[in-house]
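WARN no homologs supplied; continuing
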Amino acid sequence: MQRAALVPGVLALLPEYAGETDPVTELRAACLRAVAWLGEVGGIGVAGSHQGLRLARHLAAEAGVGLDLAPEQPAGLLVVGNGSARRTEKAPGHLDERAAGWDDELDAALRAGRLQGLDLGLADELMADVDGLGTLRDLGVVEGCSAEVDYADDPFGVMYWVMRWRCAS
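OK structure emitted
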């Protein structure tokens, strides 16, 4: 695999959740750039939850990129997932004091490409969407690769990243 990218499973990116103003303009642009970048190498596989797959299909269509949902050896992997949804009182899951620390650990692991030792067990309690991250870890795709971070922020009390990894096969 040559490339991998992470985008968050944010429903606000889907047209049926759009309003008169776009609350995620910067995030949307970063996601579309990452998906288009993946599309430069050919077959793109997807790792994520059911909601993540729905979002991946939408982003790929918006970026003019085709997805191969069952590639034998994809050239790129689009991972859909995000950190905790309990970072603030106004977050979907309300504040959990463990959220920021857990997200910091996840952030460091993603940036360093060292996911093998990462414990994703706390994710459910923190309302994190880590199905795709678990796949990324299990495949070892980004082990030892540094990430290029296009977006890292926690609007709405949920930690979102857009990251890209270019790695040797």
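DSSP finds four helices and five strands in the chain.
OK
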